[in-house]
Prior knowledge:
The chain is mainly alpha-helical and 124 residues long.
Amino acid sequence: xxxxxxEIVPRILEAGGEVVLKKVKSNLSAVIGKTKNPSRSTxxxxxxxxxxxxxxxxxxxxxxxxxxxxxxxxxxxxxKIANILEFGKHGQPPRPFLKPxxxxxxxxxxxxxxxxxxxxxxxx
Length: 124
């Protein structure tokens, strides 16, 4: 396994990231459009949500990131809109979707990564 670590670890991290991504999308879908006024949601924020491939950082650690592609069609920022949803603003209460997804998906993510690791080890 030592020789194939750099090949195996990214697949394991990406499998765990997919679990978290699914939960974030589910939570985001649940909070979008829940307003007193008619929703102006275009679906662009959900469409911009994605996961990066596992990459090696400057410290030698592999990372995957879940986030929003930028910019929006009109030139605005998806991250700004996500931040406003998560934390609210004056006159708009917070509707968190990221933090609850992290908490809710943690154990499933770990189990998925353990299963993925075991599967990779069985292939050796």
